[in-house]
Hints:
Blueprint: H1 3-7, H2 35-42, H3 46-55, E1 62-63, E2 69-70, H4 73-88, H5 92-104, H6 109-153
Antiparallel strand pairs: 1-2
Helix pairs in contact: 5-6
Amino acid sequence: MTVMESTESVSSRTDTCASAPKAHPRPEGADRYTISEVAAYSGLSAHTLRWYERIGLLSHVDRSHTGQRRFTNRDLDWLSFVGKLRLTGMPVADMVRYAELVREGDHTLGERQALLEATRHDVKERIAELQGTLAVLDFKIEFYSGAREASERV
């Protein structure tokens, strides 16, 4: 299976994180997690998880007979991917749009790809800016190191 197949909804599969996710705490089929367990696993607050569900960034989460949310390994994978999107600086509205496209099915693959390509372009621009900033810092550090060594020789 290619990375593209593992990350994009093709037939019955759903979008998940491209990089190898952390090992799931429970095997598929026994993967019912409370909101507090998911918060501990993901580092997100319960409030954030509820908000993600409310705005459509997280698909409908199954509920127990008492109404408590029951997350699955698939939900954990999706949250991991959303975390990666957050790190790119993608606006929440674009992340929600991406989630909507995933739910709409395979006919949206082109739109999803375009959205990710635009985000990738933005990330590459930010990396270039940061590399320029790093070069300035390196120059200054080298300057101060040389100046300090010269003053110590005097």
